[in-house]
Amino acid sequence: MDHLAHVSNLRSSQSQTQISHLALDIGGSLIKLVYFCRYDDSCRDDGDELRSQNDSLCSKSDNNQPVLEGRLHFAKFETSKINDCLDFLRSMKLCLGGSHDGTAPPSDKIFIKATGGGAYKFADLFKEKLGVSLDKEDEMECLVTGANFLLKAVHQEAFTYLDGQKEFVQIDPNDLYPYLLVNIGSGVSMIKVDGDGKFERVSGTSLGGGTFWGLGRLLTKCKNFDELLELSHQGNNRIVDMLVGDIYGGTDYAKIGLSSTTIASSFGKAISDSKELEDYQPEDVSRSLLRMISNNIGQISYLNALRFGLKRIFFAGFFIRGHAYTMDTISVAVNFWSKGEAKAMFLRHEGFLGALGAFMSYEKQCLDGLMVHKMQQKFPISASSAGDNIYCSLSSNSDENGSIECTVYGT
Amino acid sequence: MDCLVAGANFLLKAIRHEAFTHMEGHKEFVQIDHNDLFPYLLVNVGSGVSIIKVDGDGKFQRVSGTNVGGGTYWGLGRLLTKCSSFDELLELSQRGDNSTIDMLVGDIYGGMDYSKIGLSASTIASSFGKAISDKKELEDYRPEDISLSLLRMISYNIGQISYLNALRFGLKRIFFGGFFIRGHAYTMDTISFAVQFWSKGEAQAMFLRHEGFLGALGAFMSYQKHGLDDLMVHHLVERFPMGAPYTGGRIHGPPLGDLNEKISWMEKFVQRGTEITAPVPMAPPGTTGLGGFEVPSSRGATLRPDASALNIGVLHLVPTLEVFPLLANPKMYEPNTIDLSDHKELEYWFTVLSEHLPDLVDKAVASEGGTDDAKRRGDAFARAFSAHLARLMEEPAAYGKLGLANLLELREECLREFQFHDAYRSIKQRENEASLAVLPDLLLELDHMDEEARLLTLIEGVLAANIFDWGSRACVDLYHKGTIIEIYRMSRNKMQRPWRVDDFDLFKERMLGSDGKKPKPHKRALLFVDNSGADVVLGMLPLARELLRRGTEVVLVANSLPALNDVTAMELPDIVAEAAKHCDILRRAAEAGGLLVDAMTNTVDGSEGNSSSVPLMVVENGCGSPCIDLRQVSSELAAAAKCADLVILEGMGRSLHTNFNALFKSEALKLAMVKNQRLAEKLIQGKIYDCVCRYEPAPAS
């Protein structure tokens, strides 16, 4: 992804809109942004137009709060290129959130909600470069809040993916809990969610997106994550992996339920003396790596779901990024180990749970006098199609700019 | 898979201290009660990982596995580091620092812990997560760091998946085996850490000493389905013969077969000096082991180890060994009184044995006539045993859980390995002769005493005569100062009751009764004898005679193989025969016990009625060590013990170093003089030459 293009694109397409209310999730590899853009200057009191635009029933807010209508936008930057992110923020004047309604606090007291480890690590940098303070929100809490919000409020947010078939799952918001949330960032966190704000990190693994990218870079010289993912499409992991068939001479080892194409040992064929790293196709290496990590995450997730008797496992985080093969492998792993009893589910806005959760946390503190209200339940938001970008498109990475149409009450 | 499980079941049941835990570099052996072995989780880490739930012999199910295993480590490692062997890759990891390549929680949180969810700053958040940096290429990372990062990633993952599976089936024990582990401390630590971390300390990872051989062993078992499956732990004796040179984790040169090769190899040791840290046992089947003792070699299982931090001995199958039937609680029984896992204790005994070594070598060489060949073997033995000791100092768990008894036995085994069958032969003979010469006078003296005085004198005599012990430094010094009789007399005169542990009055009451009531004599007494010479002739024989006189059958229990100057079961009949020449009681009893086959003496007074004496018998105990592990005794002894109601253990080795705390179903009397200052302090808060007379009545049944 070309960030400069991305940024300029944002700038041109949204220069007419007012941008306010930003939240950040600064992870080990990526910075995720969620920000709210109003349509025009539509700070309304009557709500009529809103109703017509949203195709959904909208009752006027109970206490005559002003309603902001607009979109939630999503963007991301590599953490190592944090300056791009700072430039972006500066250019968009995002950091002046709340100033438009005339109640801006003095500039030395501007806060931005932020989560992820980087919220601690880069707090000083933000202060120095942008003059804003990062208001740190707990990472897990944000993840869960974001996931709960998406699963309850966004229509067709969750889907299963098996054998190339994507199937949306309608979640009854009243029958959502408990579930297992697996967030695959640089590392992997597994969180048992029992309700709003009720959750526990039950497990995790260090074999995550960072491992895929890190090992992949060392092994293939790929320049970025997406290139590496792209490569894996064309690869054949049989060159590198030792399969059950390789050990048992091509016959299925059916006695213990393993087929001959089951991977017995990831990278197990690479122990051969006759081949060096240069002799392997980067495509094959990438494929093998992807399968190893996806499979492992699927397995550990299932074991944890089993442990707590959870039927639903939602996978999210930037490692997945709508990549078909990744989802397929995770699904197969869950399916295999659960003997078909559990299904892996994915979220369309997988990468932005933390940032979204941080954004939601404005509500708690009414920082800008804004409420991202519980209205989400009253106003289900349809799958967004902001501009030409359909977030849920699976095969491309044009989903960066996906946004959710939403309504925010101002006070 | 069948083979794996069969191998693991066999090892866990048949070999003592096969399993151990490994945390932060510290090994601890775990004794598994083989009646409470199942169910357990067996994790075999080969190229891939199989996770198997084992419910019993032949009852198991592969419940899980992972494709991230040893092959992944070696495969990825090869691609990333250009290492040419698995061992080299492992070796590298020991000098690595994974924080240069793994993304730690602290890296994300700017050095802070994420304490809210219990993650410390050093927790790995993402394996290889730092390698995403644009600035560094593969060549910029140290292979050491890459290897360590890989190792941690894979070990940690295996530990986690294993624990989750154990949890799923409610299994408490997880055993890890397979070539990936290879006794590699860091691998074991990482897996242990993962299991401990995820289970919050409730589960423990355990490892097997013979971990690399599960499959092979199982396959071996499968083609002799006759009888090996119901092998019991007491049938196997593990030995650690000197094999091939072992330095820096590698075996140099071929395994050493015959004695000559061993000797010349040990000579080369001199040049390499301190480099030599350890012997790796590599003996081909049929050599060394129990030496002259009968080993059915056709069924002997021999295991050959690779370079390993843990030494694996040769397993000798001795189907004639049994558990001593009079042990009150065989499962709880621990022979060793002193646990050498305390490093100070080990250091002390290391010094004792090292100092004693030159004297022992002299004796050994002399026993073989002092020839050049004997000298060469003597030197080789000294080096081999020193190497064993050095190895143990460096890695106390190298040979499994080590007690003093094992250490002393190791020395005897080492002597036998260099074909010193009986280093003290001539000394023993000389002392026996000298003692037998004064025996008639002693018996006469005893016969003039009344019953009570006689019993006390007899016990005093046993304790006094126990001073003759070539295993004790202090006593070796004494030998140079006087004759046997002088020492014996001096020693007996010094006997001052009360002894440090003094149950004599209890024993006397049992023997003689109180208030004129005569108690029933014992039916049969087992006398575990100790040293040759005065100890057995002037101490134990007169006591045996007293018991015989009271109508108690006496079984003298002696070593099967020589150990120091301990009397052996082979030598005892001659000694008894010689003593019987001077004593009618002994003669008739020995005849009744079949010890005097030619019965020449029968015609001397021709009194037929006297031949119906209770018998005096001799049995071998099945071992060749100054100590005795009562879990492994000869079937002869086990049979003889069936109707015994009194066990008398004599000497430091058998009643203090081992069995001091052993409980029996029968009455037990433990007699010894403590000839070691440290042991005296440690065991009885006493001092050197203090005496122990411990009497324990039979438990109420």
From TrEMBL, chain A:
InterPro entries attached to this UniProt entry: ATPase_NBD, Type_II_PanK
SUPFAM superfamilies per UniProt: Actin-like ATPase domain
Protein name: Pantothenate kinase
Domain of life: Eukaryota
TrEMBL record, chain B:
This protein's record includes keyword Transmembrane: no
SUPFAM superfamilies: Actin-like ATPase domain, AF1104-like
Domain of life: Eukaryota
CDD domains: ASKHA_NBD_PanK-II_Pank4
Any one Pfam family match given in the protein's UniProt record, by short name: Fumble
Keywords from the named record: ATP-binding, Coenzyme A biosynthesis, Hydrolase, Manganese, Metal-binding, Nickel, Nucleotide-binding
Sequence intervals crossing the membrane: none
Cross-referenced InterPro entries: ARMT-1-like_metal-bd_sf, ARMT1-like_metal-bd, At2g17340_3_helix_bundle, ATPase_NBD, Type_II_PanK
Cofactor: Mn(2+); Ni(2+)
Residue ranges annotated for the Damage-control phosphatase ARMT1-like metal-binding domain, each copy included: 360-683
PANTHER family in the cross-refs: 4'-PHOSPHOPANTETHEINE PHOSPHATASE, PANTOTHENATE KINASE
Name of the protein in its database record: Damage-control phosphatase ARMT1-like metal-binding domain-containing protein
Organism: Hibiscus sabdariffa (roselle)
